[in-house]
């Protein structure tokens, strides 16, 4: 009887046990509608971001070209003071030539490149037989322009005192406007004063 009683309780326990529930598999991923919405949002963001990124790049190119010219002119001034003679920077269409030469053509501007040289005979022309070439700058063709006002359209010359002087001995000053093919207040102005010092101004109207 004892064994039979135990067997009955086991049977009741087994009969009362609930079957384990069956869980369906969970699938992770995107539906077609969600994917299309994601692509559409991405396209909108890209459309807004690309013009802004292009503007940053073009502004950076203007700044870089401006800084290159300013650095070269400051170098020319320091060399004039150090050497105690006139040092000239002029725009050049062939800075890598042997020898290079200055250009006075109105059809080109400082953006094409420039050379810096000692100029003891005060003629703003590089005489390779008697003068020393100090630095060259060759620029790739771009849509950037660097247009100098009348007195500094072709050359900038520094004497031993560090002042900027024309070949006739008069003080030399003026502005170089740096622009590209855009319009608006995106340009940079390089201002040269009579003391030979340079100042840059941002947000200049172009063209």
Automatic annotation (TrEMBL):
Q: For this entry, list what GO says about its biological process.
A: protein secretion by the type II secretion system
Q: Where in the cell is it found?
A: Cell inner membrane
Which InterPro entries does this UniProt record tie to the protein? N_methyl_site, Pilin-like, T2SS_GspH
- GO CC annotations, alphabetized: plasma membrane; type II protein secretion system complex
Limits of the General secretion pathway GspH domain: 66-196
Keywords of the record, alphabetical order, are: Cell inner membrane, Cell membrane, Membrane, Methylation, Transmembrane, Transmembrane helix
Pfam families from the entry? Answer: GspH, N_methyl
Acyltransferase keyword on record: no
Bilayer topology: Single-pass membrane protein
TM segment ranges: 26-50
Reply yes or no: does the keyword Manganese apply: no
Q: Which family does it belong to?
A: Belongs to the GSP H family.
- What is the name attached to this protein's record? Type II secretion system protein H
Question: What is the scientific name of the source organism?
Answer: Methylotuvimicrobium buryatense
């Amino acid at each position: 009887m004892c064994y039979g009683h135990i067997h009955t309780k086991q049977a009741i326990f087994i009969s009362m046990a609930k079957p384990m529930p069956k869980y369906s598999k969970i699938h992770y991923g995107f539906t077609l509608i969600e994917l299309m919405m994601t692509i559409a949002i991405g396209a909108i963001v890209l459309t807004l971001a690309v013009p802004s990124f292009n503007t940053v790049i073009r502004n950076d190119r203007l700044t870089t070209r401006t800084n290159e010219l300013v650095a070269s002119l400051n170098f020319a001034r320091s060399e004039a003071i150090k050497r105690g003679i006139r040092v000239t920077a002029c725009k050049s269409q062939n800075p890598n030539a042997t020898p290079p030469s200055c250009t006075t053509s109105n059809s080109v501007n400082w953006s094409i490149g420039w050379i810096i040289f000692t100029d003891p005979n005060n003629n703003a022309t590089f005489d390779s037989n008697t003068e020393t070439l100090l630095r060259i700058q060759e620029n790739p063709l771009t849509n950037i322009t660097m247009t100098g006002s009348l007195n500094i359209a072709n050359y900038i010359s520094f004497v031993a005192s560090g002042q900027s002087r024309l070949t006739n001995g008069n003080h030399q000053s003026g502005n170089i406007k740096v622009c590209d093919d855009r319009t608006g207040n995106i340009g940079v102005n390089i201002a040269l004063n009579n003391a030979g010092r340079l100042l840059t101004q941002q947000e200049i109207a172009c063209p």
